[in-house]
From TrEMBL, chain A:
CDD domains: SQR_TypeA_SdhD_like
InterPro entries: SQR/QFR_C/D, SuccDH_FuR_B_TM-su
Segments passing through the bilayer: 29-56, 76-96, 116-135
UniProt cross-references to Gene3D superfamilies, sorted A to Z: Fumarate reductase/succinate dehydrogenase, transmembrane subunit
Compartments reported by the entry: Membrane
Organism this protein belongs to: Krasilnikoviella flava
Name of a matching Pfam family: Sdh_cyt
Keywords: Heme, Iron, Membrane, Metal-binding, Transmembrane, Transmembrane helix
Taxonomy of the source species: Bacteria, Bacillati, Actinomycetota, Actinomycetes, Micrococcales
SUPFAM superfamilies on file: Fumarate reductase respiratory complex transmembrane subunits (SSF81343)
GO MF annotation list: metal ion binding
Gene Ontology CC terms, in alphabetical order: membrane
Superkingdom of origin: Bacteria
Protein name: Succinate dehydrogenase / fumarate reductase membrane anchor subunit
Main subcellular location: membrane
UniProtKB/TrEMBL annotation, chain B:
Domain 4Fe-4S ferredoxin-type: 160-182
Pathway(s) the chain acts in: Carbohydrate metabolism; tricarboxylic acid cycle
Species this protein is from: Krasilnikoviella flava
Domain 2Fe-2S ferredoxin-type, first and last residues per copy: 23-119
Protein name: Fumarate reductase iron-sulfur subunit
PANTHER family membership: SUCCINATE DEHYDROGENASE [UBIQUINONE] IRON-SULFUR SUBUNIT, MITOCHONDRIAL (PTHR11921:SF29), SUCCINATE DEHYDROGENASE IRON-SULFUR PROTEIN (PTHR11921)
Cofactors named for this entry: [4Fe-4S] cluster; [3Fe-4S] cluster; [2Fe-2S] cluster
NCBIfam families: dhsB, PRK05950.1
Cofactor binding remark: Binds 1 [4Fe-4S] cluster. Binds 1 [3Fe-4S] cluster.
Keyword field contains 4Fe-4S: yes
Metal-binding in keyword set: yes
Length: 154, 258
């Protein structure tokens, strides 16, 4: 009979709003602490960097190849800039990861955005680290007036 | 009365002594009824009622439902800020309709009334609270103890009680959770109310389930999703310092981990 085929007027019980999966663990805890700890250290590193580069001595007018070359000949500034690079990059990447988690509505969008983010920051971190350690302040054949004084030991 | 009759031309009629002045107020209400001709579309309806300075948004909704459009659907039970049934978005802010005086939300302009955000709307101002309660149940909102039941009540010092006093006031209205921008895009987030109610037991000296509750909320969808926007604290009709409670739970987790 036709009546037997009539779908029930009562809809199927609604899916209980179950948690998709539990994602417990300390990762987000460490990430949260890292944002604050790295923020405090960045405060010193970034403003120290700005002060030394833009205000001490001739200030901003002193910045040229020789100035940068001279700074990176000192292990102190190498470590300073390396720390600043790594902390800023991990801090910034982690911050944008949070923003993506907050705003991406679909899992696929979230995946694509985070992949691009990790790729971009990996390139910057690796390239930056490479430059800080392999930087040659005295490239052979360069005009002498552009080079820092340490290139002319006498 | 005689004074008025003596000088009828110059004196405007004074309101009767003790009379409550009335005013016209328009409510702009977000309607949703999948069984109506609008289908899945939400629409705005405007209703104008005559109200008094003592009337709340809930009274205006009653007047509309009882005198103008019986199909208007909303939840309310106690009508006095106790049951937590009638949280709604009034002029863009989550409030209890029964605790919001019309005169406090600028009745000179139409007052917008919408369902709270982030939960599935069932009809008009009624949302499905189940996702909200599911998170609430997950944090185990009941006393957890071990050993034998005491033969008398579990005593607690006034200082120990004070520790979690604020979070005992929650009426589970969902105003906080549905004001949270993280919850709007991520329905899996436990939300402020679940954390508030976990706080109520985590910091109760008689309870022994704190570790389990901290474990449950130390989740990608737990306290670490909180971005400290303070929307929840602003929304809570009970005046609970919701963001502060969330921070205290975060701190308890950090001191446990390090
Ligand atoms: C100058 C010192 C800095 C301090 C004190 C600092 C502090 C913070 C803190 C505490 C957070 C966490 C906010 C939250 O969880 O709600 C944060 C987030 C963030 N930071 Fe920094 N930060 C600094 C520098 C930087 C730098 C150099 C970058 C970029 C490379 C950056 C990019 C970000 C981003 C994208 C976020 C995420 C935004 C959000 O969660 O709303 N910050 N910062
Ligand atoms: S904490 Fe406040 S706003 Fe949140 S559910 Fe409880 S009473 Fe409502
Ligand atoms: S109707 Fe009970 S809280 Fe408003």
């Amino acid at each position: 009979m036709a009546q037997a085929q009539t779908p029930s007027a009562i809809a199927a019980p609604r899916s209980p709003y179950a948690r998709r999966k539990t994602t417990r663990g300390n990762f987000e805890l460490y990430s949260w602490v890292f944002m604050r700890a790295s923020g405090v250290v960045l405060l010193v590193l970034v403003f120290g960097h700005l002060f030394v580069n833009l205000m001490v001595g001739e200030g901003v007018h002193a910045i040229d190849f020789a100035f940068v070359g001279g700074k990176w000949s000192s292990p102190f500034w190498q470590v300073w800039d390396l720390l600043m690079l790594w902390l800023a990059m991990f801090h910034g990447t982690n911050g944008v990861r949070t923003v993506v988690n907050d705003y991406a509505q679909r899992d696929s969008t979230r995946g694509v955005l985070k992949s691009l983010l990790y790729l971009a920051s990996a390139i910057v971190v690796i390239l930056g680290t490479l430059v800080i350690f392999t930087f040659n302040p005295c490239p052979p054949g360069a005009p002498a007036e552009l080079l820092p004084s340490i290139c002319f030991p006498n | 009365m005689t004074a008025v009759l003596e000088n009828p031309a110059t004196e405007s009629p004074k309101p009767e002594v003790g009379a409550v002045p009335s005013f016209e107020v328009t409510l702009r209400i977000r309607r949703y009824n999948p069984e109506s001709e609008h289908g899945e579309e939400s629409t705005w309806d405007e209703f104008t009622v005559t109200a008094h300075g003592t009337d709340r948004v809930l009274d205006a909704l009653h007047m509309i439902k009882w005198e103008q459009d019986g199909s208007l659907t909303f939840r309310r039970s106690c009508a006095h800020g106790v049951c937590g049934s009638d949280a709604m978005r009034i002029n863009g802010r989550n409030r209890l309709a029964c605790k919001t005086l019309l005169k406090d939300v600028n009745p000179d302009k139409p007052i917008t009334v919408e369902p709270i955000k982030g939960l599935p709307v069932v009809k008009d101002l009624v949302v499905d609270m189940e996702p909200f309660f599911a998170s609430y149940r997950e944090i185990m909102p009941f006393l957890i103890t071990s050993g034998n039941e005491p033969t008398r009540e579990r005593l607690q010092s006034a200082e120990d009680r004070e520790r979690f006093d604020d979070t005992t006031k929650c009426i589970l209205c969902a105003a906080c959770t549905s004001s949270c921008p993280v919850f709007w895009t991520d329905g899996q987030y436990f939300g402020p109310a679940a954390i508030v109610n976990a706080h109520r037991f985590i910091f109760d000296s008689r309870d022994e389930g704190a570790t389990q509750r901290l474990e449950i909320l130390n989740d990608k969808e737990g306290v670490w999703r909180c971005r400290t926007t303070f929307n929840c604290t602003e929304a809570c009709p009970r005046g609970i310092e919701v963001t502060k409670a969330i921070q205290e739970v975060k701190r308890a987790m950090i001191t446990r981990a390090f």
